[in-house]
Design goal:
37% of the residues lie in helices and 19% in strands. It has 14 helices and 14 strands.
Length: 436
């Protein structure tokens, strides 16, 4: 059960002010669809606006925040030329330059004769000191609202830094104060702040050092992420230990029939893999095993032998592929071999509709179909098995954990065999740390 204090963080980003369907798509691409995803989208740089010189002292190429009197607006004679606003302080003059300007907006933001605070990159153009398209324009009273050190975030097409910054500030308001979960002595030894202050500090870096992974705030947040990951894995392991499996052991009668029809004998590696998998399945623990082999090395035949063993023991089996093309290839390989052993094999993909689909579902629910081959269609709500004992997932990196577990949930204590030719780093880590 998720604690109620975390509910606001798991709301969709559209619950934040100013986030509609369009921005939500950009945010999902950038970080994720829920508010908590944004909290971990930390700055990658800063814009330091604390440099506040007089005009005459402003260094070209630096970001500066200047207090200026607005002297005159000069509208260009042609649209392609820039709109200029001439400003000054007691030390000299500075020109604000705008391309494709809206004169009404600029006259409202920079009224002649009034004082404004302007922040942007100072440039020398001939004899003229200027700022092109200032980042910020505000009154003296609003100056305190301008961030002296502005965080710079990784962006995606469609989102500006100004818009993303506003959204992230709103997201941070949803972050609750949480009870400390790190061991107190270790926390004190590392001199880390509490989680909430660390999060706020991570999004408000004061200098370049604050962006380094070794900064107190960032190292604390990184430790939280690693600790959460390890605790989640521990919970999964504990849950898997509670969910006892069942012994599935065939008599090899179907396997012998199919092997007799093959024009070749299994290789030593195939025999070894088959023996190890069958040993797992015959134990009372639920199997979660990875079968890795290059393309063409014979993983499908090994999987078929394993499925036949489950059918011999009275169970149905299913093999799920990420694409319809791959599912049909498996069907064309497996169906004639299984047919030779007197077994019924069905193919279920998103293309199956109406009465043909209903007929397949009836065979699965009644147990008439011994082996099901398909795509994501296999774990749809209306798909039921009479007694699913083994699920085989091909190209497992193309499926999420939830999708694999959804298929396994179609039976009771279902053993799982996942196959890949190219294990991704996450897959190798799962095998290294004992989850597979």
């Amino acid at each position: 059960m998720r604690p109620e204090v975390l509910y606001p963080l798991f709301q969709p980003v559209t619950n934040l002010p100013g986030v509609g369907a369009r921005n939500a798509k950009f945010l999902e691409t950038l970080a994720g669809p829920e508010i908590h995803h944004l909290l971990w989208h930390l700055p990658s740089g800063i814009i330091d606006r604390r440099y506040s010189p007089k005009v005459a002292e402003a260094i070209s190429g630096r970001i500066a925040t200047l207090t200026l009197q607005v002297d005159q607006h000069r509208k260009p004679p042609q649209k392609r030329l820039p709109y200029k606003v001439f400003c000054s302080d007691e030390s000299g003059t500075l020109t604000l330059v705008f391309f494709h300007a809206h004169s009404d907006y600029l006259k409202k933001s920079l009224p002649e004769g009034e004082t404004r605070v302007v922040s942007g990159k100072v440039e020398q153009f001939g004899q003229e000191i200027q700022i092109t398209h200032p980042d910020h324009i505000c009154t003296l009273e609003e100056r305190d609202q301008m961030q002296a050190v502005e965080p710079v975030y990784p962006l995606t097409q469609g989102l500006s830094l100004k818009v993303l910054g506003k959204i992230l500030r709103a997201a941070l308001k949803s972050a609750p104060e949480l009870p400390e979960w790190i061991d107190e002595s270790y926390l004190n030894q590392q001199k880390w702040p509490a989680w909430h202050p660390a999060l706020m500090s991570g999004h408000a870096p004061e200098d370049e050092k604050s962006l380094e992974p070794t900064s107190l705030a960032r190292s604390r947040l990184a430790y939280d992420e690693l600790l959460a990951n390890q605790l989640a894995l521990a919970l999964v392991r504990a849950n898997m230990r509670r969910l006892k499996g069942r012994s599935i052991e065939g008599d090899s009668s179907l396997c012998r029939k199919v092997l007799d029809t093959l024009p070749y004998a299994l290789t030593a590696s195939q025999e070894t893999a088959l023996t190890e998998i069958k040993t797992d399945m015959s134990s009372d623990d639920r199997m979660m095993r990875l079968l890795q082999g290059d393309v063409g090395s014979g993983k499908t035949v090994v999987a078929l032998m394993v499925m036949l063993g489950a059918v011999e023991a009275g169970y149905q089996t299913a093999i799920m592929a990420p694409t319809e093309i791959l599912a049909r290839q498996h069907f064309e390989t497996i169906e004639p071999l299984a047919k030779a052993a007197g077994l019924e094999v069905v193919l279920l993909t998103g293309r199956n509709k109406g009465k043909p689909r209903d007929a397949i579902l009836e065979k699965l629910a009644s147990g008439a179909a011994h082996i099901a081959i398909g795509t994501h269609a296999l774990f749809q709500d209306d798909v039921e098995f009479e007694n699913l004992g083994l699920a085989v997932i091909d190209e497992q990196h193309r499926f999420g954990v939830h999708q694999r577990l959804t298929l396994a949930a179609k039976g009771s204590a279902v053993d799982m065999l996942v196959m890949t030719a190219t294990p991704i780093p996450r897959t190798l880590m799962l095998t290294a740390y004992g989850d597979m």
